[in-house]
Design a protein that fits this description.
The complex is a heterodimer of chains A (about 525) and B (about 375). Chain A has about 525 residues and is mainly α. Chain A has one domain. In chain A, about 75% of the residues lie in helices and about 5% in strands. The C terminus of chain A is likely disordered. With about 375 residues, chain B is mainly alpha-helical. Classes of the chains: A mainly alpha (about 525), B mainly alpha (about 375). At the A-B interface, helix 2, helix 3, strand 2, helix 18 and helix 19 of A face helix 3, helix 4, helix 5, strand 2 and helix 12 of B.
């Protein structure tokens, strides 16, 4: 049965939009949680009230953002089932586990402690409250770990094999799924991106206070934390982004080639295209500015391993489709008679390529009837959208480099105790949106670059969709977009409102002489 | 010891535990939210009510999220078939869940009655919708759902959203609504300022009375008016997870299990005793009232699960496609690994959850919220 292409397209759009919405809030939660923990640690160690107020003030903004992260996250946990039912069946044996573990190990802790962070100030001791904040921060990152283990398995499906009797992938080694090298690189890269975002958020808003001459001591302290935390995070995001690039080149050669718009296999070590206009029709990159050797070094960590180009990979795909059809045929035989030794042998030999035969399912019901033209068409469909990936990647990397420079400079100024200078503060303030740009583009590179696969080499996206009607998906898609957009606007309004009010406007800092200390009032 | 059959039964029970955990823990949040403007007559009273649940609702909701994840991991076919089949209902449910975190957090960020009315309405609606939709969905399981699998195990569904609102399903929806409204009211009676608590106790008594009547009515209807499903061929309990490999007959009774396993009756008895406990204790002994209501919730869900056993999701369109616990699970390896992890982490979860509740113990009084309201 061929799934309605409209349903596939709409479901993809819905998944992309809801994930991109979710990813507006989650990285900030990751980053801010750690910054809160750092600020509160200073409070507990020094006993200076200002650090507690800093934790509480940034905590208010954290809370607004956290609510949005949770609101947009609920959809993600269930969307595989609603819109990607065949995917859920086909890989649930492996893919469901990390999601469930995330719930048990991380999100439960996070959800349970976040209330205590806000309501526990006067109910538990300082040290206990600090522990709550630290566990909250750790739990948010642990959450990211398990989600990225699940995601990494989509990029690099290790530790699983196809079972013709249940018509799905089943786990052969949980250890391999968990220790997936792609997961490790992705985890550190993604949480570092979140830390960078958190640092930028605090840096920019503090810069704004300093530009207005408000909350000066408060803002300078916040900025110092942001500058040091941000520098470490930005360095890590770029270095481990590179590690991520290396692991991509290992198992997602097509994604790598598309990011580089590398149409032909170049002699090693390949050059890196700094700038260019990829032309999908002619398979050329116009006006290319190239840095010799660089790509080969990033992608292979060597000077003599070639990186395959797009055309070569399409030819490879054709061969794999041929093998896949053999595997598919053997699978059908086995479904009738599971003791057919010959079919079993063929399936074992080619089951790594069966997914390639499933690429044909977009065009026909029975891949075994494919003509050479169909196979060509299916092989061509393995090329993702080159110009989008090419540019998304470059802008993301440029942002990353800029973050290192900005946080490096801010760190230098902070260590000289010179966090003034209108030029610096203005730049710091206007850099606020950049981490979001980089994070969203990063998602696009990783996930849009995975197309046409839901699970790389195993399950094409088009096959994973539920058997719905386009009308149903229109309802949910427009509903989510309307709802999320309205909520995002309200979120932006509240963020702005509370950032503007500031610690002074909220009566947090400086302490008013007539004010009763909060702790004394409630104990 | 942990062969495939045992693991499947354990995971059936564990999903039951998660569902019950969700209904008990998040259930009172929904109940309180739905009653926000019934019990809370003034803005201050509403803040009290909200503050009885705000510190802990987030953790409670993870029971739902984890339930989703666990069904995905342990019963992938059930996850795939139910959520995609009940597409529009699921979408409505998700919207109800989406407004909750923002509703709680944003409500008090702007001092404006209209702003608060908007968020209150969202929270009230979300409470009512979740309680109702979950009950309606459960009722539909007994009626069977219109789906079938092809040989690739791709599911197709033949029915719309409004087809779910059959009379019996509406009744089970009302069972859920009254049960969880009573549950929320017993929570408010235990946790909120005395003026509110007295009102809450009254609501709890009425709602729990309604619940008993509706629950018993649903039971009778189920016994006499709704045909059950049964595996008719040989029952293979440790076979491969492929629903198409069995035979299913319709027309028996959903109470077949109760006849062969008389101890199943404990579940409905506990449920009804719980409701009686609510009548006796609510308003007098706060915790006993809430605990009774907890028993009612647990007993009710268990009684439904027992009746369905071994079915997870019966199909009217193609009874063979029905999902049972013997043919819709993950592989043995996944079930075992997940069981080990659940055995480690569930006790830890219960431990720190109890600690948080202990820290937040005591009534939230009007005087307290006048003096300080958390920096939430």
């Amino acid at each position: 049965m061929i799934v309605d292409p409209d349903v596939v397209g709409l479901s993809r759009l819905q998944f992309a939009l809801t994930a991109l919405y979710h990813f507006l809030f989650v990285p900030l939660t990751l980053g801010l949680a750690f910054m809160l923990a750092i600020m509160e640690s200073v409070y507990v160690m020094t006993g200076r009230e200002v650090w507690k107020k800093m934790t509480q003030f940034w905590g208010v903004l954290f809370g607004i953002n956290f609510a949005m992260g949770v609101a947009t996250g609920v959809t993600m946990e269930f969307q595989f089932g609603t819109n990607w039912a065949y995917y859920s069946h086909y890989v649930g044996d492996i893919f469901g586990a990390p999601l469930a573990i995330e719930g048990m190990m991380a999100f439960f802790l996070e959800g349970t402690l976040v209330g205590l962070f806000f309501f526990g100030w006067d109910r538990i001791s300082r040290v206990k409250h600090l522990l709550v904040t630290w566990f909250l921060a750790l739990a948010t990152s642990l959450s990211a770990l398990w989600i990225l283990i699940a995601n990494a398995w989509m990029q690099n499906p290790v530790g699983a094999a196809f079972n013709p009797e249940t018509m799905r992938m089943e786990v052969t080694s949980f250890k391999d799924v968990i220790l997936n090298p792609v997961a490790q690189a992705k985890f550190v890269h993604t949480v570092s991106a979140g830390y960078t975002m958190g640092a930028m958020f605090v840096l920019s808003i503090s810069a704004w206070y300093l530009l207005r001459g408000r909350n000066v001591d408060f803002a300078k302290r916040s900025m110092t934390v942001a500058a040091s935390f941000g520098l470490a995070a930005a360095l890590s995001v770029v270095v481990l982004g590179d590690e991520s690039g290396y692991s991509v080149s290992e198992n997602q050669k097509m994604k790598m080639a598309a990011i580089e718009a590398m149409w032909e296999t170049e002699p090693a070590p390949a050059s890196f295209t700094l700038f260019g206009l990829p032309d999908v029709k002619t398979h050329e990159t116009h006006l290319a500015v190239r840095v010799p050797w660089l790509m080969g070094l990033i992608g292979t960590r060597s000077i003599d391993t070639p990186i395959p180009g797009i055309r070569n990979l399409v030819d490879d795909a054709k061969i794999r489709i041929g093998n896949g059809i053999r595997a598919y045929d053997a699978m059908l035989v086995l479904r009738e008679n599971k003791n057919d030794a010959q079919a079993r042998a063929i399936l074992t030999l080619h089951d790594k390529d069966m997914g390639y035969a499933l690429l044909l399912k977009r065009f026909m019901d029975d891949p075994r009837k494919a003509t050479p033209e169909d196979i060509q068409k299916a092989a061509d469909s393995t090329v993702p959208n080159v110009p989008v990936l090419f540019w998304a990647f470059r802008i993301m990397v440029a942002c990353g480099m800029y973050f290192i420079l900005l946080f490096g400079y801010a760190f230098w100024r902070a260590s000289k105790r010179r966090l003034d200078g209108r030029g610096f503060l203005t730049i710091a303030f206007w850099s606020l949106p950049l981490p979001w740009v980089a994070a969203e583009l990063g998602w696009i590179v990783a996930e849009y670059g995975r197309q046409p696969w839901a699970i790389e080499g195993v399950l094409p996206t088009a096959l994973g969709a539920s058997s719905l009607t386009a009308g149903q998906v229109w309802i949910s898609l427009s509903g989510f977009v309307l709802f999320y957009t309205a909520l995002a606007i309200i979120d932006g309004y509240l963020m702005l409102k509370f950032a503007r009010k500031g610690p002074d406007g909220l009566g947090l800092w400086p302490p008013r002489p007539d004010a009763i200390p909060v702790t004394a009032a409630t104990t | 010891m942990f062969d495939y059959e045992v693991l499947r039964v354990i995971w059936w029970a564990l999903i039951g535990v998660l569902l019950t955990g969700f209904a008990i823990m998040d259930g009172f949040d929904f109940g309180v939210a739905a009653l926000l403007r019934v019990l809370g007559r003034t803005e201050e009273e509403r803040i009290v009510l909200l503050e009885t649940i705000e510190p802990t609702w987030e953790g409670n909701q993870v029971w739902f999220i984890l339930g989703g994840g666990a069904v995905f991991a342990a019963w992938p076919l059930l996850y795939a078939a139910s959520f995609s089949g009940l597409y529009v209902a699921m979408f409505v449910l998700l919207l109800a869940f989406i407004v909750r975190p923002v509703g709680f957090n944003f409500r008090e960020k702007v001092e404006n009655p209209r702003w608060k009315l908007v968020w209150d309405s969202a929270l009230i609606a979300s409470g009512v919708i979740v309680m109702l939709v979950c009950g309606v969905a459960f009722g539909n399981l007994f009626l069977g759902l219109p789906f079938r699998f092809d040989a690739d195990l791709r599911m197709t569904w033949d029915g719309g959203f409004f087809a779910l609102f059959k009379p019996f399903a509406l009744l089970t929806g009302l069972v859920s609504l009254s049960m969880l409204t009573a549950h929320g009211a017993t929570w408010a009676a235990m946790k909120a300022d005395h003026t509110i608590a007295a009102r809450a106790a009254q609501v709890a008594r009425i709602a729990s009375l309604a619940y008993v009547v509706l629950y018993v009515a649903a039971g009778i209807w189920l016994a006499y008016g709704i045909p059950g499903f049964a595996i008719s061929g040989p029952v293979v309990t440790d076979g491969v997870s492929n629903p198409l490999a069995k035979q299913v007959a319709m027309g028996g009774t959903w109470f077949a299990g109760y006849l062969t396993h008389p101890w199943f009756w404990l579940a409905p008895v506990v449920g009804i005793l719980g409701a009686i406990g609510v009548q006796l204790f609510v308003g007098r002994r706060g915790f006993a009232g809430f605990a009774s209501s907890t028993l009612a919730v647990g007993g009710t869900i268990a009684s439904a699960g027992f009746a369905l056993f071994p079915f997870l999701m019966p199909s009217t369109l193609d009874p063979v496609s029905s999902l049972t616990i013997w043919d819709a699970s993950s592989s043995r390896g996944t079930l075992l690994t997940m069981l080990v992890l659940a055995a480690i982490f569930m006790p830890i979860i219960i431990l720190y959850t109890s600690w948080v509740y202990r820290v937040m113990r005591g009534r939230v009084t009007l005087e307290h919220v006048r003096k300080s309201h958390g920096m939430y």
